Amino acid sequence: MASGRERFAQGLIVRLFRAWAAARSAGRGGLHRMREIVVPLGLPDETAPACASLFELVEAHLGRALQAERSCSARLSADERALLGIVSLAPALHGGATIRQVPHGLPGAICWAAMVVRRAFSIAEGAGLPAAADAGRGGCPFGTRGVAREAHHGL
Length: 155
Hints:
Layout lengths: L3 H22 L5 H8 L8 H16 L15 H16 L14 H13 L35
């Protein structure tokens, strides 16, 4: 069962992703808006840049834009669930390891960014985010059909 800290982190990561995605769609950088969300909460200074880095690295690795649900939606998009999965599973994937949920592993930069996000939200070692449990069942949580296989290899 997830603690209040993990539920808070999950909600805020999704909120930051949606703000970042909306800014990107409007042709602006999302970091300023992300900082506006984070600063009043007293989170560490690296929270917004770490989240932005994670989002950008994942998009670059996949070679496509990540899809966000609408900002007011209580539902999560598949990409939002997958991002939460990366943050949850990053400790197990550090150093190029693979696990059932992410059989191709992750690049070191993505693992590093996810670990910085975990640290910024004080997510305890071994703790996961509630929505991440569904991410990655049966393969890559980002839905890799039609994407070159080479793009999914870890380090």
